[in-house]
Amino acid sequence: MGVYLLLICGVVVTGMPFVWEFSSSLKLNSEIFSYPLTLIPRNFTFSNYVRLVSGEQIPFLRQLLNSCIVSASFTALALFICSIVGYGFAKFQFCLKGPLFIMVLITMMVPQQVLLVPLFLLMNRFYWLNTYLAVIIPGAFNAFGVFFMRQIMVSIPDELIDSARIDGASEFGIYWKIVLPLSSTGMAVLAIILFLTSWNDYLWPLIALRTEEMFTLPVGLATLLGLYKVEYGMIMAGGFLATLPVIALFISRHRQFITGMTSGAFKF
Amino acid sequence: MFTNWRVLKRRAVPYLFISPFFVGFAVFWAYPIFYALRLSLFKGVGIDASRTFAGLENYTRLWSDPRFLRALFNTSYYAVASVFVIVPLAIILAVIVSSDFVKLRHFFRLFFFTPVLTASVVVAIMFTLIFEERYGLLNNVVLSPLGFPRLNWLLDARLIMPALIMVGIWKWTGINALYVTAGLQNIPKEVKEAANIDGASQWQTFLYITLPLLRPVLLFVVVLAIIGSYNLFAEPYLLVGAGPQDAGLFVTVYLYLTAFRHLDFGYASAIGYTMIVIILTLSLIQLKLFGAFRK
Fold first, then answer.
1. Structural domains in chain B, sorted by start
2. Which residue of chain A has the CA closest to B11?
3. Which candidate from A114, A221, A238 shows the least CB-CB separation from B272?
4. Global pTM?
């Protein structure tokens, strides 16, 4: 019926940019800029990919590596911080709990823009500019993650923790061996959110990273757009490659994605 | 003394657990926030420039700065326009996807979700070839066949905002539909059945029962959309830059250019703080409008 037609239209509109990007990545620039437009390339070529990966315009492989290192480290560090802090807020009673938690929430309300300049100057003072540290550390103190982990851990039965205490377990041991494993499904969701945020991040890496060799993938790819002679085929290839890991992750873990989504985390 | 030590250790434990966040909070959030405030009260260009105290001069300068005002206008226009298109579209999509088409439903939900996973940079990349005047997809596949002239989307001052809004719609409708779907699922079937029994038509049920019950979700969606619009950077920056007569200049882009091209950190910090005030005020207004403070 008409409803299906609408949905099909939606699918076409949503998917077309991806399809067009992929199709263009397999064409030479001369074919991209010729009539009539073709969906399936007349002259199929992998040269865009080859030239991109060979580092002709940008150190693609190095930038890919940078993105991997940064995103993986960021996710691991943020997971640790958010889970341990979330546990503290979830399962303990202490005087300043309320006000301190409010402070956590306040950070979520302030837009990133204000922090860009002072954080840049701070990174300069630390000598962290153009290093992995600048793109990994500051963001790892993620208020949303703390909030998220707290919500997850609140539902862990107190009796489990108390009995572990009685059995003589250390506080950190309780966190590490009991609480963490029990929160693993939630942590998987958060991990995906964190990884994606880091992998796709553009503005802060653009500011904090200064040389091509240190750029993450989004920053590196964006430089291709500003070239005097824009290499469209290559850019499309780059865009496609940059999105591949995300799509792969999505297909294999789509349930966690949807859960993460409806917790309101995606602000990019 | 021994028992006092034990008690002290016990009391300290939660603070130890939460300390990692607050150390980072102090260094990477609180200090920069106040540093920015201080910066905004000084004049001086460059990283190690000697700064002269300027009081509120940066702030007053903002409101007579045509570039800032244009950026503010553009960003606000984008925010309002995209909300007015995305929210209804998302609601329609959510209603369709929530109704009873078994297996395909899940596929559609997943599919419409993909744009949001795509990096802004990649989105910008994809849309450069779509908006291209002579060989772009939009002009050649949609406009020409229907007899319309080819439009210069990214270089014509009147078309830049519509183009960017289209990108926004493409990217965000899916996930907002997902939010609304979650909201729809929270509406108990009995309420709609009761309305049906009382003789309400589908349309009336939707208007007077479903929509009001969706209010919290819609508030969430709208607030998030507006805040997101004011934070937008990559797509306008990469697709347009500033555009002819700043037709595509967004506030965050202007902040970036002021800080990292002109190295005018004080002025940029003033922009940042002004935006905080504007965004917070807007959020409060929306919360009030949607009745978040009512019982």
1. 2-40 (no CATH), 64-289 (1.10.3720.10)
2. A94
3. A114
4. 0.90
